[in-house]
Specification:
The structure holds 2 protein chains of 2 kinds. Chain A is an alpha+beta fold. Chain A has helices at residues 17-25, 38-46, 68-78, 86-108, 114-143, 155-170, 179-189, 192-197, 210-219; strands at residues 6-9, 31-34, 57-60, 63-66. In chain A, β3 and β4 form a beta hairpin. Helix content of chain B is 55%, strand content 8%. Chain B has a 4-stranded mixed sheet with strand order 2-1-3-4, covered by helices on one side. The chains are: A alpha+beta, B alpha+beta. Chain A: Keywords: Transferase.
């Protein structure tokens, strides 16, 4: 409808990264406005564009959407990445929610105090290898198809590859013992829109660093 | 398809309560199996019924569904409580996201230390009155309709009513200053399926007490206190 989607967030991954992944997977170009100061954030609040005073904000199809999950569901629905019927959507939702729980641990990691980082890293590794990855390994093994749901590329596949790569950044050998996921990772990385997103110069953001953490804390005045 | 809907959870609100509300709103009958012992939970785990080793779990239409949001979305869509198109669904998802965040503050409440409980009560009231309730008050004021989305009863209305009642349990006059929400509360409470759910003897669960907390801790072996966020 009216131009490209416009993302408002920090210049970093955080809660916006899954949105960048999904838009990219759908082949949708988007613009970004990066929050750097608390004044910018306060202006957004004053202008009434943040329904719950929070980012992410995605302006898309005339809507000012907030709430990451709502945004992702809308994009998935619009670009046919949400399965063919209610039951496939239910599977995609279940898988995505599980992966999101794992990603939440990674999301919070940069903000945890130094003395807790080692424990948190161990927790991420444990949850990834005993709770989440085994489920998807089993799903892929049982149906033998290329994609998680309905033999078709969907939001669930995008979310899973994002999570695999994010965990691998912390624990490089984490896919040892998960041959289906290893093959899945290669396969989905070669989907043309994903391949493009994985190349340098794409809107994909690097792992959060100290500057990112400081910016977030400064903008939210914490 | 067939068969009853069956809920697996503790005998208390927790993460299952919004599901009870939504099924009730849709006029759908359901059975419940209450987790009371660690052994029951381990049996469910060993049986492979819990995809991510967690409850809530809902058996519905031949699926063993987990992940509260997935379950709620499925029920909403199946029973036509999810709007008429993608854009209405987007609004419902946004609104539910907000009430979910608000209820999240209340969900962890019973598991906080006594000292943190006092602080958290104030946080809940502050978030409700300065962040969430104003947003919904505005939605209702701007369109002047009876329901939040598309002039039709939806999941968003059920979820908001649940949130309002939960916050009122912490501070009974919290809706003063929100006339639209007061009217909304009265209106939605009168919808026949909701009215029935609000009556004694329904499957609505009471405010969590010490027994509930003990049960959850015992079954999940969760003996630490949660820290508020």
């Amino acid at each position: 409808m009216s131009g490209k989607p416009r993302l408002t967030y920090f210049n970093g991954r955080g809660r916006m990264e899954p949105v960048r992944w999904l838009l990219a997977a759908a082949g949708v170009e988007f613009e970004e406005f990066f929050l750097e100061t608390s004044e910018q954030y306060e202006k957004l609040i004053k202008d009434g564009v943040l329904m719950f005073q929070q980012v992410p904000l995605v302006e898309i199809d005339g809507m000012k959407m907030v709430q990451t999950r709502a945004i992702l569901s809308y994009i998935a629905g619009k670009y046919n990445l949400y399965g063919k019927d209610l039951k496939e959507r239910a599977l995609i939702d279940m898988y995505v929610e599980g992966i999101t729980d794992l990603m939440q641990m990674i999301l919070m990691f940069p903000f945890s105090p130094p003395e807790e980082k080692e424990k948190n890293l161990a927790s991420i590794k444990e949850k990834a290898t005993t709770r989440y990855f085994p489920v998807f390994e089993k799903v892929l093994k049982q149906h033998g198809q290329d994609f998680l749901v309905g033999n078709k590329f969907s939001w669930a596949d995008v979310q899973l590859i994002e999570a695999i790569l994010a965990v691998e950044e912390k624990i490089p050998a984490v896919l040892l013992g998960f041959p289906q996921l290893q093959a899945f990772k290669i396969r989905v990385s070669n989907v043309p829109t994903i391949k493009k997103f994985l190349q340098p110069g794409s809107p994909r953001k690097p792992p959060p660093d100290q500057h990112y953490v400081e910016t977030v804390l400064k903008v939210f005045k914490r | 398809m067939a068969g009853k809907v069956k809920l697996y959870y503790f005998n208390g609100r927790g993460k299952m309560e919004p599901i009870r509300w939504l099924l009730a709103a849709a006029g759908v009958e359901f059975e419940e199996e209450f987790l009371e012992t660690r052994e029951q939970y381990e049996k469910l785990l060993q049986g492979g019924s819990l995809m991510f080793q967690q409850v809530p779990m809902v058996e519905i239409d031949g699926m063993k569904m987990v992940q509260t949001r997935a379950i709620l979305s499925y029920i909403a869509a199946k029973y036509n409580l999810y709007g008429k198109d993608l854009k209405e669904r987007a609004l419902i998802d946004m609104y539910v996201g907000g009430t979910d965040d608000l209820m999240g503050f209340i969900l962890m409440f019973p598991f906080l230390s006594a000292e943190d409980k006092e602080k958290q009560r104030a946080v809940i009231v502050e978030k409700a009155t300065s962040r969430y309730f104003p947003a919904y008050e505005k939605v209702l004021k701007d369109h002047g309709q009876d329901f939040l989305v598309g002039n039709n009863f939806s999941w968003a209305d059920v979820h908001l009513l649940e949130a309002i009642l939960m916050v009122e349990e912490k501070k009974s006059d919290v809706l003063s200053g929100f006339p639209k929400l007061q009217a909304f509360k009265a209106r939605i409470s009168s919808i026949p399926t909701i009215k029935k759910f609000l009556e004694p003897g329904s499957q609505r669960k009471p405010v969590p007490d010490d027994k509930y907390v003990e049960t959850v801790r015992r079954v999940l072996r969760m003996y630490y206190n949660i820290k508020p966020n």
